[in-house]
Automatic annotation (TrEMBL):
Occurrences of domain HTH gntR-type (ranges): 21-89
Chain segments annotated as transmembrane: none
NCBIfam families (alphabetical): his_ut_repres (TIGR02018)
Protein name in the entry: Histidine utilization repressor
GO molecular function: DNA binding; DNA-binding transcription factor activity
CDD domains xrefs: WHTH_GntR (cd07377)
InterPro entries: Bact_HTH_transcr_reg, Chorismate_lyase_/UTRA_dom_sf, His_ut_repres, Tscrpt_reg_HTH_GntR, UTRA, WH-like_DNA-bd_sf, WH_DNA-bd_sf
Amino acid sequence: MKKNINAVYEPAQPVAARKLVPAYEQIKRYVIEHIANGTWKTGEMIPSETELVKEFGVARMTVSRALRELTAERVLTRAQGLGTFVAPRDVESTVLDIRNIADEVAARGHRYSAQVLTLEACHDPQAFDALTVRKGPVFHSQIVHHEEGVPIQYEDRYVNPLVFPNYLEQDFTAETPNRYMVRLAPIQYAKFRIYAQRPDAHVRRHLAMEIGEPCLMMWRHTWIGELVATSVRLWHPASRFHLAGSV
């Protein structure tokens, strides 16, 4: 039987990024932070719309939108005449869909954009090991993905040129690597791991993070036939992290 899960963790974000975030999104992250740190537990009532309006100094429609979206995302549940409550959470899933981040952002009704930092052929032994090839060059890209102008993911990817020979010729501000590769050759098999890590200065700077703020980093290998097609590390600031999957 198929079931969907949502695992969300979004503590308070750094000031530099928060200034770029719409008010309703700040309220959503405030609610999620209080659920994630255990302040509001499953089944408990959260503050009313009136209380949140006073606390944030925004219009009621702004608060209403935040709560409506959190209800649609199954973070909250609303009972007419009673209030809004923390929804039950199913976090037993261990299988993730490989989803295109641009589609995820668009599904939330937000604007997606990308900044390509690196798009090159490389001879890095680490890349050869990741792709299980004996010699290069292989392809390397580094891209920062944004939602409403706020960086939400740093992508560091190695690509097997035997599978995607025209990779370096693509415009990845117009189409993500994920969409490009799936369009040409649908992924047949994948392995992934998720780690909690502190990013280096380069990643931290491009994600507008504060020193000491942790990231959740997903490492993923994908295969097409017998070949490792791509190896990617995806860095997500813990303060702007949203993970969804299904089993």
